[in-house]
Structure formats: structure tokens, C-alpha cells
């Protein structure tokens, strides 16, 4: 019976424990996935070759420690990357909603103004026929639109029209005088440029977005700075456990 031949120790491949350990440390301190994945892959490969008897086992503890650090660095960097992606998507979504809302507000204001002019023309036709505004009522098809309702306070020589938004807080009022002109425009709620400064809202929104970005960046930097301070003691513990397991 032929016994399997054992390769002499001098002919075994040299381990890469020190390199793998350095890559693992760098994955926690600075480079994340860039060095974490190589440390993970190289560590698995070398440990497998050690078990197969093709590589020296002197660096097994360093190799195992570097691989573990690489795995941790890769996972942390992956979570940070996912968080950053979600943060960017959230920022752009929030900014898009604010811009869309501001554009919708401007469009609705113009829509109400145009509808009030239509009501004024309708009331003028009524006055030409009867010589007075008294008794005028808004036609049913003009009382309501998709997002507004309209009302009128009628007097003999003038009508106070009001368009109120149903999808936001705000209304626009105007008075139709005896000459057929809409005067005394009043903008309330979100349509009031003085109490609801749209440009200021846009600016405050951008400031909030900047704050979110700064806070998010700081939140990502702090764990890394803390990791740098704990890395040495953490590595020593892993090496100790790895060598104990190897023995």
C-alpha cells in the first residue's frame, strides 16, 4: 500500500497574513469596500489552502483576523452606501415635492383668478339684461371646479366673489363694481404673498436640505473616527481569538 506523500514544510507557499491584516484594517479605517473585499476573498483563499496543506500555517492567526476585519469593513461600508443612496433619493424626492407644490400653487392661483373673471363676465351679462346685480346667482356649472368652490355676496350695484381652494388653505376674493371691473383683490392663506412668502419657503427648504446633508455626512464620519480609535485594540482581540482557535 502506497502512503500519500507529504510536501516538505520548506516547499509550502508562504502565507499573506500581514497583507490581509493590513487590508482588513484599512477597510475599517478608510477604504471600506476597496480593501475589505480583497481582505475577505484573500483570507478565505489562504485559509482553505492552509487546510489543504498547501500553505504555511504560521500566519493563520493574522490571516483569520484580517479576513474578519475585511468582512466587518465590507458590511459597514455596504450599509453606509445604502444609507447614502437612500439619503440622496430622499433629498431629491423632498426637493421635487416642494418644487412641484410651489408650481401647483402658482398655477391654482392663476386658475382662480381666471375663473373669477369668468364669473364677472357672466354677472355683467345678467346686469345688462336686468339693469342691476340684485338676484344674481352663480350658475351651477360655475360654482365648483376640481379643486375650488366659488361663492358670491350680491348687492344691487356690486358683487363680492370668492374662490376658495379645497385642496389647500387659501382663497382669493374680488369685488365686481358697477362699471364691470374686478377691484379690491384679496389673497388669503397660502395665496397671500406677504404671510406665505413662497421664495422664503424655497430658501428655507434648501437650508433644511443642506442641514440634512451635513448631518448625514457627520453621522457617517463619526463612526469612522470612533472606529479608528478602537481598531488597534479590536485587532489585537481578534488575533488572540484566532490564534487560540488555531491552536
Give the SSE map.
Blueprint: H1 17-31, H2 33-51, H3 60-130, E1 148-154, E2 159-165, E3 170-176, E4 182-189, H4 198-246
Antiparallel strand pairs: 1-2, 2-3, 3-4
Helix pairs in contact: 1-2, 1-3, 1-4, 2-3, 3-4
Keywords:
four-stranded antiparallel sheet; single chain; 247 residues; disordered N terminus; rod-shaped
What does this structure look like?
By secondary structure, this protein is an alpha+beta fold. It has two domains: 14-83 and 224-246, no CATH class; 107-198, no CATH class. 62% of the residues lie in helices and 12% in strands. It is built from four helices and four strands; from the N terminus they run αααββββα. It has helices at 17-31, 33-51, 60-130, 198-246, and strands spanning 148-154, 159-165, 170-176, 182-189. Strands 1-2-3-4 form a four-stranded antiparallel beta sheet, with helices on one face. A hairpin with a 4-residue loop joins strand 2 and strand 3. Helix 1 packs antiparallel against helix 2 and helix 3 (60-130) runs antiparallel to helix 4. The chain is rod-shaped. The protein starts with 16 loop residues before the first helix and ends with a helix. Mean pLDDT is 79; it is low at 1-7 and 216-230.
Amino acid at each position: 500500500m502506497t502512503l500519500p506523500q507529504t510536501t516538505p514544510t520548506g516547499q509550502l507557499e508562504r502565507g499573506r497574513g500581514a497583507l490581509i491584516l493590513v487590508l482588513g484594517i484599512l477597510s475599517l479605517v478608510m477604504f471600506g469596500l476597496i480593501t475589505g473585499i480583497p481582505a475577505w476573498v484573500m483570507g478565505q483563499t489562504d485559509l482553505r489552502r492552509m487546510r489543504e496543506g498547501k500553505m504555511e500555517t504560521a500566519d493563520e492567526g493574522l490571516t483569520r483576523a484580517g479576513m474578519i476585519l475585511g468582512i466587518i469593513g465590507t458590511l459597514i461600508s455596504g450599509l453606509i452606501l445604502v444609507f447614502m443612496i437612500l439619503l440622496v433619493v430622499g433629498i431629491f424626492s423632498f426637493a421635487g415635492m416642494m418644487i412641484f407644490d410651489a408650481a401647483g400653487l402658482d398655477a391654482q392661483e392663476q386658475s382662480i383668478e381666471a375663473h373669477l373673471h369668468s364669473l364677472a363676465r357672466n354677472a355683467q351679462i345678467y346686469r345688462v339684461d336686468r339693469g342691476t346685480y340684485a338676484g344674481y346667482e352663480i350658475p351651477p356649472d360655475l360654482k365648483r371646479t376640481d379643486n375650488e368652490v366659488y361663492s358670491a355676496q350680491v348687492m344691487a350695484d356690486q358683487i363680492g366673489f370668492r374662490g376658495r381652494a379645497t385642496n389647500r388653505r387659501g382663497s382669493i376674493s374680488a369685488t365686481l363694481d358697477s362699471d364691470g371691473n374686478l377691484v379690491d383683490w384679496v389673497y388669503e392663506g397660502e395665496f397671500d404673498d406677504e404671510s406665505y412668502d413662497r421664495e422664503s419657503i424655497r430658501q428655507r427648504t434648501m437650508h433644511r436640505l443642506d442641514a440634512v446633508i451635513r448631518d448625514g455626512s457627520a453621522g457617517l464620519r463619526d463612526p469612522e473616527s470612533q472606529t479608528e480609535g478602537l481598531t488597534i485594540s479590536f485587532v489585537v482581540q481578534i488575533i488572540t481569538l484566532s490564534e487560540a482557535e488555531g491552536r
